[in-house]
Amino acid sequence: MRVVIAEDELLLRQGVTRLLADAGIDVVAAVETADALLERVARMKPDVALVDVRMPPTHRDEGIVAAREIRATYPQTGVLVLSHYLESSYALRLLEDQPERCGYLLKERVSDIAVLVDALRRIADGECVIDPTIVKQLLHKPRDSGPLDTLTERERDVLAAMAEGYSNEAIACRLYLAPKTVEANIHRVLQKLDISESPDSNRRVLAVLTYLRSA
Amino acid sequence: MQVALRSTSSTRGVRAGAVVALASGILAVVALRTAHAAPELGYVAWSPSGAAVLLVPGLAAIGVALESLYRRRDDRRALLLALAGLASLLPELSVPGTRPALAFTAGLVLAWAAPPLVGHLALAYPARATTPPVRALCGAGYISAIVLLGALPALVFDRVAAGCADCAANLVLLHASTRLEAPLAQAGIAATLAWATLCVAAIALRLARATPAGRRLLWPVLIPAGVFVCCFAAELALSLSRAYLSTAATGRALWLGGQAALFGLAVGVAAPRFRARRARTLLARDVVELSNRSGAESVATRLSVVLGDQTLEIAYPVGEPARFVDANGTPVDLAHQAGRATTALRGLHREPETMALVRHREGLLDDPVLVDEIARAARLPLTNERLRAEAAARLALLQASRKRIVAAADTERQRVERDLHDGAQQRLVSLAVALRAIRSADGPDGRLLDEAQQELASALDELRLIARGLYPAVLDELGLPAAIEALSETAPLPLKVGQLPAERFDPVVEATAYFVVAETVHDPAASRVAISGHRDGDTLTLLISTDAPTSDLTRLSDRVGAAGGTIRRRPHADDVVLEVEIPCGS
Fold first, then answer.
1. CATH for A136-214, among 1.10.10.10, 2.60.260.20, 1.10.3720.10, 2.60.40.10?
2. pLDDT tens string B513-562
3. CA distance to B116, B137, B140, B142, B579, per residue, from B184 (Å)
4. Looking at domain B479-583, what is its CATH homologous superfamily?
5. pLDDT single digits (tens) B48-57
6. Which residue of B has its CA nearest to A110?
7. Which residues of chain A neighbour B495 with C-beta distances below 8 Å?
8. Measured between CB atoms, does B464 come within 8 Å of chain A?
9. I want to staple A46 with a disulfide (CB 3.0 to 4.6 A). Which of A4, A175, B298, B472 is the partner?
10. What is the CATH number of domain A2-130?
């Protein structure tokens, strides 16, 4: 897998480059600005771009802007955005146009190389990745009683996995369930929450996240 | 120092007035005596109407001038008018039959002093810094009419040779010579005629060049003055061939025209005083009205009605060094604009500092008398309004500084938040990555490293919470609805987010709205909160419904007040609704 890294902090850029290389991932370029990132992506057509949200010149949301541009211009290149912010609105803003091959992870995940590599592979395979902490925060958001309270423990796990962007097969794998059981669970959850079923698991992520945010 | 100067000039005015009054009395008596003694030789017949024609215009001019002098206004212009009034009596003295000799001699020399005085007055009216050409023209008038036309021929005028044995003695006779007298008189007539022509042209030019408003002010004085000089010029033109000014039919008619014009001039000079008195009466009525209705229309509104200028503004000096503000304390731009002028309204002589500046149509307040009257009549409401404007301006400054302090605090929190993310947190993440790298090199036994990594993870979580509480980046980057949405995900209680305006506001407005909601949400007495908001014109209104009715609102009020807003609490079913209004006009 070929990856381009955009991160303005020198130590972190070098560290992540080394860790990914150790894990057998081909880091074809490591740059420090959004402009350089766009240029490398155009030239090298990597599988995934690993992008920091805050980059020069304003250190605001350059990463998200660049990520959306990459997704709009190069459909074959996925984007994994790393952010300090545990904010669902940032994640949703990233995903809303093109949920497939998109990911939003908290920055400290880079220290857990297995998680990072797994996210990169899922994105390269066309999935969408949402940081589990964001999903957990949304699920545990204080709210008046509603349809969410009617879910069983198993159904909540399935809902969380859906929100994190896992496909049906991946959910079956993670929860040690038979694919048929997973499908039945998904069907029940969506019905209870009154979310229309979509064959595309990435669109499903958007629907579930939006539901959790507004419920 | 200024007061001393003023009192000197005032005394001088009164003294000059007394001299003029005395002189006019003497001259009137002498002129009447001449008219009585030699009615066929003078300009008027011996009758009440003749006496009236002779005396009324001059005395009217003197009266108007004395009134001005008494009120200590335009000393120079008033003096010119008074002298012109006196001089108008002198031609009558230059005829045979005048006694005593001093009067006759004065008549000979100064008979034609009135025209240059009137011309001078017309060119310097109302209070105008004269330019060198105008000064030269005025000087030429005095030289030609008094020296060339009056004094020089008088030096050689011999009453016996002239066939007037009956005349009084010529006290300035130097060398009797009929041969010299005629050419001298002719030269004087020619020179004075030239001056009078130029003077009429200058007056006409001044009227033509004036702004419409200025013309309204000038014509009552300039037209009669012009007619007066015209009559004189016509008489000179008729006399050019015969080398003396006649009291015969044509000359008499022109003299009558001059007298009428002089009377018109006196009325014209007095006219602004009547106008001013009218304005003052109106203003005085308004003063009473204003004091009866507190918070009524501003002085500027009343003045604009009284003076008929819709664009009129008043600016008050406040602070040290003075800034100029309107009645509401809002700064006024005093930069020059075409067609607009600024006039200062000053206090009475005991407090001569500027009370207010009036911005008005050009030419509207060219008349210093009117300005004085306005300042006099409106002194009380002006002072009152200036004090209120000063208070309002101070309040505005205070409010602005309060807002700046809050904005500075917000900026500081935002900076610390960024520093935490970009500094400390970034370092910790780098450290975590480095630890991971060491661990993979270290082999399978990395228990201590595992623990270190756990510590790091919790440090990062805590740091994020602190940073977020300081200033949520999402507020700055995505605006109020996104920030409130994010707040609802981390709040310790259910926060129901209703409709919120999606548009972006000033950072102070957004931060104020956000922190008010955050504060309500983190109130330990609350167990549920709902928020909605809308923009209504220049006001952002938030309705925060909470079940914590006893909470102290001081902190919230401080925060909202700093942004110029208000917060009200009213009960609603089991809850209370906080209605927060924040001004958001750009």
1. 1.10.10.10
2. 999 999 899 888 889 999 999 999 999 999 999 988 667 788 888 889 88
3. 19, 21, 17, 16, 96
4. Histidine kinase-like ATPase, C-terminal domain (3.30.565.10)
5. 888 888 889 9
6. B433
7. 142
8. yes
9. A4
10. 3.40.50.2300
